[in-house]
Every structure is written in structure tokens, then in C-alpha cells.
Write a structure and sequence with these properties.
5 helices; alpha+beta; about 210 residues; disordered C terminus; two-stranded antiparallel sheet; six-stranded antiparallel beta sheet; single chain
Length: about 210
């Protein structure tokens, strides 16, 4: 009788597992660096760019940074005014984005008179930035090991404007006849076989055994 009750409980729990959907992690798409000039994208034109709409479009470092942040996040940047030397302080005063001294892809690098966007960070510490220049070069990229060397300007730090996409979820159902690996047994079982042979089931979320 006791064994029958145990088997009944195991069957009920296994049924719950079968009917439950357990999410598994799917990593967000890799960051795609911009290494070529914008080519008519609305983020850099009067259509969406706050600076272009007021007559200060590209070539202009803040107009480019605004457009690049817009392009990366898909939402209008919170910093939509001021010159390059003011971005760092505008962000701090309004607590728009986190900031710091550590380079991150998608971050806006801020100097006393310039802003650029971090596009890549190599294993050896090389930082690739993309940028535009007021009344100068429309677009270019450069590689730096020391950001303080950029045109001799004072380097403030990085504004972490890039918002990584939320991790997507993929549905995965655990079936009674599905074979899976049991680390404790170092063998493969179906969910039903493993539960019946051990009077227990495995919680797929934690890989913990629920003894019966």
C-alpha cells in the first residue's frame, strides 16, 4: 500500500513536470560594431536626430553619439542637448545612465571637448571607437590604448548608454519518455525510469532531487 502511494505521488509530480514549461537561457545577439559611416539611417538625420533637427547634425560628435545610441537601443537617448564637453555633467546631474572608468561596448566615451562611442574592446586592451567631428570628418574609427591621449583633451570617463537586449526565453518541456543525464548516477534515464528506480524526481530548474 505504501509503495502504491509513493508511485502515485511520483506519477502526479511527473505529470506536473510534463505540463510545466521551464525556460532555458538564450543569449542575446552579439553586439554589432559600427565600423562604416551611417548611410541615411534615420537615427543620424533630421527624421530622428535631435541635433540634426536643430541645425547641428553631422559632421558633429554629439549628433553622431546621439544617433548611435538611438540606433543601438532603439529608443531616444535621454541626453539630447548640450555640447560634447557638457554630456558628462548633464548625465551626472540628471542621473540618466550609469557611468564609470571601465570601457564597455556601446558606451559613450567623454572628453572635455569630444564624445565618441566604444565599438570594440580587444583582449589586449585596445579600444576601438567610432566618432564624427564638428565641421570636420563625417565619420571615422580609431583604436586607443590610452583614452587620455585623444587630441590631448581631458578624459572624463564612460557613460553606459547601451542597454543590452533582454535575454529571450525558449520553452522547454520535460516529457516522461525524454532521456536525460543524471549526474548522481552517471547514466542516462527517462524521467519515469529515474523516478521509479530512485523513488525521487529531479527538479529541472535546480537539478535537485526531490526524494519521496
Amino acid at each position: 500500500m505504501r509503495k502504491l502511494i509513493k508511485n502515485s505521488i511520483i506519477t502526479v509530480l511527473l505529470t506536473i513536470i510534463v505540463l510545466s514549461i521551464f525556460p532555458t537561457t538564450v543569449f542575446a545577439k552579439d553586439y554589432e560594431p559600427r565600423l562604416t559611416a551611417p548611410n541615411g539611417e534615420p537615427y543620424y538625420t533630421r527624421e530622428l536626430n535631435a541635433y540634426a533637427q536643430t541645425g547641428y547634425g553631422m559632421p558633429n560628435c554629439v549628433a553622431y553619439a546621439f544617433g548611435r545610441v538611438y540606433e543601438l537601443n532603439g529608443t531616444r537617448p535621454l541626453i539630447d542637448r548640450g555640447n560634447a564637453g557638457e554630456w558628462w555633467y548633464i548625465n551626472k546631474a540628471n542621473n540618466y545612465y550609469d557611468y564609470g572608468s571601465e570601457p564597455r561596448v556601446g558606451a559613450v566615451a567623454c572628453w572635455s571637448g569630444h564624445v565618441a562611442v566604444v565599438e570594440d574592446i580587444a583582449d589586449d586592451g585596445a579600444i576601438t571607437i567610432s566618432e564624427s567631428h564638428w565641421r570636420g570628418t563625417y565619420f571615422n574609427t580609431k583604436v586607443y590604448y590610452n583614452m587620455s591621449s585623444h587630441y590631448g583633451q581631458y578624459f572624463y570617463g564612460y557613460i553606459y548608454t547601451y542597454q543590452e537586449p533582454e535575454v529571450e526565453q525558449e520553452a522547454q518541456a520535460y516529457k516522461m519518455d525524454e532521456t536525460y543525464f543524471a549526474p548522481q548516477k552517471k547514466d542516462c534515464f527517462t524521467a519515469l525510469e529515474f523516478a521509479q528506480s530512485n523513488n525521487s524526481i529531479m527538479n529541472p530548474k535546480t537539478n535537485a532531487l526531490l526524494n519521496m
